[in-house]
């Protein structure tokens, strides 16, 4: 018997919002009614799964269907946005949405905070005391962004306004630099660099600048280095750290398609399609996820063998035809089989990932993160820009756009470019010299080389294995191309990540 439940998803980008009906150059114009029906059913199933796995004590989303005690501020923030989206989709009523949101915000108000900042990891049972240790602002900022969506969608829910206003962004700016981590128990800070533009740090910087807590130079200092692969340019970190969600999560909150950042997202997704085709993979979509049989992506490094559905869903506004085709192929591989519990079956959308070399499925739902990213992407596509519109209405966002005109530039000619790519077959493989030639293995021996990473074990041609940092990797390829001995058909302790061809030193 199958049961479908109907009751009871760094780093957003900050473009000037343009919401309009599809134009002649919009790729969504060419979708069939069956395509829309497919997406609507997927959105419904995904929401049902997200709403099923909620902690009764707080209303927080569980981190996964295993119902662990711990969840994350990112999970909570994206679930709150998903509640708004579910109401817009007609999956729950406005009263049900308010009940879910009020319950979560009431629980949040009880938790220890420092100048409005919460610890990253929250207890779903309602334990409120904070433990010492660093917490990344890149996790926390999705919750604050969600509060802006809520206070526009439901102005009567006053705790959203109160929780947002108590955050003192100026507390992160010390000694003329941005500190990306904080300890809730003593207010100590950690400096992890100025942050990548193409990461979820940028929402914190945007909100800090928008509220006056951070200077504009905090944004100006963010890293904007680009790389090129198959002739397409995109911002780092891309393959180097966490994959497509670092680029694509911005489109959950704002319409970034026609900005430089949006073009980078579109190019990186297109490169992933080319990488899959050139390496004989039937599906694409590389992003942080649960590697079947191993665990969630560690330290941001990706496995070449593992593809996750939420990655392609993040770019459905760019390439709807190619995304739908990819999702259907993932479904054919077994990624959307029902969830079974207590003798019943439930349609909850996609499982988290698949190993494309073995066919093994990760039988987990990451309900507050990966599922939420997929669901919110579908909501913005099926109810054009409804979350974008709410976010853009907020006075804080409007003020931020005035201070940071970098995000107000629009190039709507890009719509035609995306539509052309979406319609046409992928181009022929690029020259061999442009293919990724270097892969890095990290065996996670817990020998830290800095505050963010581990020693990396490299196997080079005509060179013995050696533990080295990235600078030594570059030195090692002055004469030799790296050769990685990595069996993708086996489970081991290694992750592989892709690096574009290294320039001559």
Task: Please name the defining characteristics of this protein.
505 residues; alpha+beta; three-stranded antiparallel beta sheet; 16 helices; 36% helix; disordered C terminus
What do these coordinates show?
With 505 residues, the protein is α+β, with helices and mostly antiparallel strands. 36% of the residues lie in helices and 13% in strands. It contains 16 helices and 21 strands. Helix 1 (33-52) packs antiparallel against helix 12, helix 2 runs parallel beside helix 12 and helix 4 packs antiparallel against helix 5 (158-165). The longest helix has 20 residues, at 33-52. The N and C termini lie far apart (63 Å). Mean pLDDT is 82; it is low at 1-25 and 432-505.
Average pLDDT, rounded to a whole number, is: 82
| Sheet/helix structural class | alpha+beta
- Amino- and carboxy-terminal Cα gap: 63 Å
Oligomer: single chain
Number of strands: 21
Give the strand content.
5-15%
